[in-house]
Amino acid sequence: MARQRRPVLGIGIMLLAHKLYSIGMNTIPPVTLLAVIGQTLLYMGIINPPWDRYDMCLSGEAILRDKDYRRLFLSAVEHADDIHLYYNMASLILKGRSLERRYGSLKFLILLVVFTAATSLTYVGLVWGATEAFHTYSYMKQCAIGFSGVLFALKALTTHYEGSGFHYVHGIMVPSKYAVWAELFVIHILVPRSSFIGHLAGILVGSAYILGPLKLLVNSVHSIISGLNAFNEPAYTRSTAGPRPHQRPSPEYSRQQYGWNFDYGSQYQGEQYSQMNEPYEAVTR
Which terminal CB of the chain, N or C, has fewer other CB atoms within 10 Å? Predict the structure, then answer.
């Protein structure tokens, strides 16, 4: 039976509240803001589901042997501690402000759902492959929790849109196209308890979107849901409330209307936490 979650207010929650206040909640697109608030309320215990957070951590064993498919989604929205939550949500705010404005709110929501499922499935595939390759079952028992696999997928997109520029990764300047790979190894060195496989899964999912397969899926779902052409037509040409197609929206307008699909513009660390009662090796992702 799940333990009753007690409302908590740690330093990470206060840091996140300060960040939301300092940047202004009205500057954060709606899907991004709801994702941040929802995961925060879940961690704090204000949203109190009928499971314990560690019961939802993602492992190859839980999916392939126990068929507990809920974990493919629920493991991503649970967090180990408040600092883990803060760094992930701060990263989501940064990436969401860029990508949700680029794609529009509906398509960004679809992107988050698809990336969550795809990252979890890729993680399971990687740990199964590691088990077969190295002949050790320990990979199947590693249990990952947190949103950072999805964040690595989103980071692959943001660095892709930056083009041939440079990007700072923990103070080190690297070409943008290598930034997400550099961050993968830097975080693993700085935070050994972080899930290297979970982060790698996110990069592979982001790359699959950039190269085409997942992009086709996201565009198809978006087209079906919206009932409109999601592939080429800019969202703002389909509403009289938006700017005319030949007009470039003003910066002030772009800050207010997050649902438009504008095309003109384009961490974390975790802390070691206690071992669960069940024989899983918990890692943050």
Answer: N
Set 148, 167, 195, 222: catalytic member: 148
Active-site choice (79, 84, 167, 199): 199
Using alpha carbons, select from 5, 11, 128 the residue that is nearest to residue 55. 5
| CA triple 9-10-16, angle to 5 deg | 90
The Cα 262–Cα 104 span in angstroms is: 8
Beta strands of 22-134 (E only): which ranges? Answer: none
Which backbone phi and psi does 57 adopt, to 5 degrees?
A: -65, 150
User: Which pTM value belongs to this model?
Assistant: 0.78
From the number of C-beta atoms within 10 Å of its C-beta (0-12, 13-18, 19+), residue 48 rates as middle
**Annotated catalytic, 266?**
no
Residues of the chain with pLDDT under 70: 1-8, 228-285
Reading the block at residue 109, the tokens are 């929501």
Exposed/middle/buried for residue 81 (C-beta within 10 Å: 0-12, 13-18, 19+): middle
